[in-house]
Design brief:
Blueprint lengths: L11 H8 L17 E4 L5 E5 L1 H12 L6 E3 L4 E3 L6 H17 L13 E5 L8 E6 L3 H4 L3 E11 L5 E8 L10 E3 L1 E4 L6 H13 L3 H4 L3 E12 L2 E13 L13 E8 H9 L5 H13 L11 H7 L15
Parallel strand pairs: 1-4, 7-12
Antiparallel strand pairs: 1-2, 3-4, 5-6, 7-8, 7-10, 8-9, 8-13, 11-12
Length: about 325
């Protein structure tokens, strides 16, 4: 492809900015402008960021509980010293969000999934997991979450590259009807990355295990998005899967309405028309960069795009990145 489409409303960098929209600080002391404060463990490791609305509700909850589960100061919120194990933190966080859900306090909790996400940061725990919490509640604590996305593509007999694109079901609680990668999902506490992508490929796209297990880990992206539901720093593991020409993905679990097989010009047009779920657009942009469809010669924001989809997120991960 010699030249990218220029007929659509948004540039690639516009699309990236819509997803990676949490303010950048020019120095270590400057504020994001959102008045957020860190959530700390008892070892002072930052595991999340709390907006004023969450802090206000947390103060009221804390006032009613003895002993207080949290230490709430102007510049930070910390788990109380007696909450010093995975089990104790997990239980108090569960009680907190069960209460807020029952009170219908935050819109984010209306999307309850009964799916637990790990929050890393406890160097005393062999897995480095500090606690686990309900998936839909993660924006309220501003914790780092992880997902896996699969690019499904084919090459025609003439060598033309095409990509399978999913259209999200209109019944989805988030981004209904938007475009998506062929397979995508969060990584539950009980599964590793590859197990998650194989599971999602079978459930969302009816791909056999024999085909799904050929998915290859190729990249990862990271970004920080602020929404009406809260703050969400995210890292997404990316896998590629070349799908045989005689295999057609089919919706299975109700998450996807249908699948399209598009050439790269058409994929680009839909990205620039802002029809993709934001983080899924970033995954495709990463694919376009890795296949030299986006390159330094045709994209003036090439370096800015690369830096914004590989944002440094100052939270612990599965590796023991605690000093």
């Amino acid at each position: 492809m010699s030249e990218l489409s220029k007929s659509s409303s948004y540039s690639f960098f516009d699309i990236v900015e819509k997803c990676d929209n949490y303010p950048y600080s020019d120095s270590a002391v400057s504020s994001s402008g959102l008045n957020d404060i860190p959530l700390l463990l008892d070892n002072d490791v930052k595991v999340g960021l709390l907006l004023p609305s969450t802090v206000k509700a947390l103060k009221e909850y804390n006032r009613l509980k003895k002993p207080n589960p949290f230490i709430i100061e102007d510049k930070y919120v910390k788990f109380a010293a007696h909450l010093n194990t995975f089990e104790k933190r997990t239980e108090v966080v569960k009680q907190l969000f069960d209460t807020w859900r029952e009170e219908k306090l935050f819109p984010a909790l209306s999307g309850w999934r009964d799916e637990l996400y790990p929050i890393y940061g406890d160097s005393e725990n062999p897995t480095n997991v500090a606690f686990v919490m309900e998936r839909c509640a993660t924006p309220l604590f501003g914790v780092l979450t992880f997902g896996v996305h699969l690019n499904g593509y084919t090459r025609t007999e003439q060598g033309q590259l095409k990509m399978w694109i999913a259209k999200r079901a209109k019944t989805k609680p988030t981004w209904p009807g938007w475009l998506d990668n062929i397979v995508a999902g969060g990584i539950p506490y009980t599964l590793n990355v590859t197990e998650s992508v194989v599971k999602e490929a079978m459930e969302e796209a009816s791909l056999s295990m024999e085909i799904a297990e050929k998915a290859v880990p190729v990249s990862a992206i990271s970004y920080f998005i602020a929404t009406q539901k809260g703050l969400q720093p995210e890292s997404q593991y990316i896998y590629d899967l070349e799908i045989p020409l005689d295999v057609e993905p089919k919706p299975l679990d109700g998450e996807v309405e249908c699948f399209y097989l598009w050439d790269m010009d058409e994929v680009i047009n839909h990205i620039k028309a802002d029809e993709f779920k934001p983080n899924c657009a970033l995954v495709v942009i990463d694919f376009l960069i890795r296949h030299s469809i986006i390159d330094p010669n045709n994209e003036p924001d090439y370096l800015n795009i690369l830096s914004r989809i590989h944002r440094r997120l100052d939270f612990p991960t599965k590796a023991k990145s605690i000093k």
